[in-house]
Design brief:
257 residues, alpha/beta, Rossmann fold, eight-stranded parallel beta sheet, 18% strand, globular
Length: 257
Amino acid sequence: MNKHLSDRSKISSPTFKRILFIVGGNKGGTGKSLMACILASLILRRGETITIIEADATNPDLARRFSGHTPIILADIVDRDGWIALLDALETVETQYMVMSLPAGMNGIDGIASLLQRTLNTLNIDLHYVFALSRQTDSVELAGKSLEQGLAVFAQQGMAVRNGFFGRYEQFDRWEHSPQRMRWLSNRHFSETYLPEMNFRLVDLLEAYPQPLHLLEQAGLSTALKFDLLDWLSAAETSFSPLLNVKQDTIFEEETL
């Protein structure tokens, strides 16, 4: 059942450590919602509990894909009041993991950063920040800005992701040779990875049948396409394993058709 921010409950905040994954990147079309979907699917597939935070009212991909599979919070973070309402809602979350994708244009959070940091610390929530990179100069600059006044300032872990949709690993030359990358990797808790491009037929299926990625194999795929999906999921698991702290060879195994 979806949980709107206005529906406050009296549940006490859990005392165990929780993790909030936030996927940013500022510009639209950098793959933020797909990366959030990957993280959420990996966590669900290994049997962990998760809450989805849908913060994009214009294109609620995450809510569509995970509706009926896990609790969903609908957030409106266009201003400070919206952020406060979201932080209030986090006190009611009982799952260990939360995944959120930022809407386009939300990289800088100057006015809310201090409040966000103190609230997460008090609620015993670690922030894991994922920055979705394109090959453009402005994407590199925005990653650097995040280190100065964005979520990367106080994230416990950070990961910059070269999205294979935009090209091969070595084609991200602007990022590769940038001072922003050097600053990003100078934090021993920050890393980078490469996410291979998903087969366009699988992308089309995901749009036609919105659902967690690990359930897509049940959508009547051909033998070759099912194996291609399993291979891609295995590669995605490897890409995000430093952030998720999971063994690379245990989650997605080929099944007998």
